Amino acid sequence: MSQQIIFFILAAITLTSAVVVVTIRNLFHAALALMVSFLGVAGIYVLLEAPFLGMAQLLVYIGAISILIIFAIMMTRRLMQTNESPFNSQAVGALVGAALALVILFVVIIRLYPMAPGDGVGQSAMAVDPAILQSSVARMGRSFVSAEAYVLPFEVASVLLLAALVGSIVIAWPRRGEEDNQ
């Protein structure tokens, strides 16, 4: 019972902050609300007994992506003073797309998961050997640092991200004469 209460609290936090992200006018506040939404999703992962996904959510999305978004917002000073309306004129298209996504999700859930305990529908696809789950995180960690596996792509991705960060700083750096105009 307490897990359900915690789930509903985390779901409310996640959904409320997601609504704030798409409706607030200030981009900096929207990025902060996005971080809260990511934190709620990480809490749901931990509640679902997927601690690796929860920590990956914390490190990758909150620790890297959100901070990168905040840096991009702060480096582009003009966007901080925007007074545009957060709503657009594409409400009908958004409603059709959301309804279509809801129907697809509903069909997938009905086909894969049993409606009552003991139904045979979807149980063969859901059965996973517990030994696979126990050692998967350790195997993944070893493969990231192993010379025979993924160490080169892992390092190339880190150099690529560093180059993107340096490039964004160079682009956002004010040039001579631009400082006086702002």
Q: Roughly how much helix do the residues carry, as a percent range?
A: over 70%
Outline: extended
> How many angstroms separate the termini?
56 Å
Estimated share of beta-strand residues: under 5%
> N-to-C SSE series?
HHHHHHHH
Tally the structural domains. Answer: 2
Q: Can you offer a commentary on this structure?
A:
The mean pLDDT is 80. The chain contains eight helices and no strands. It folds into two domains: 1-84, NADH-ubiquinone/plastoquinone oxidoreductase chain 6, subunit NuoJ (Four Helix Bundle (Hemerythrin (Met), subunit A), Up-down Bundle), CATH 1.20.120.1200; 129-182, no CATH class. Helix content is 75%, strand content 0%. The chain has 182 residues and is mainly alpha-helical. Helix 2 (27-47) packs antiparallel against helix 3.
Question: Layout of helices and strands, plus pairs?
Answer:
Elements: H1 2-23, H2 27-47, H3 51-75, H4 91-112, H5 123-126, H6 130-145, H7 151-172, H8 178-181
Helix pairs in contact: 1-2, 2-3
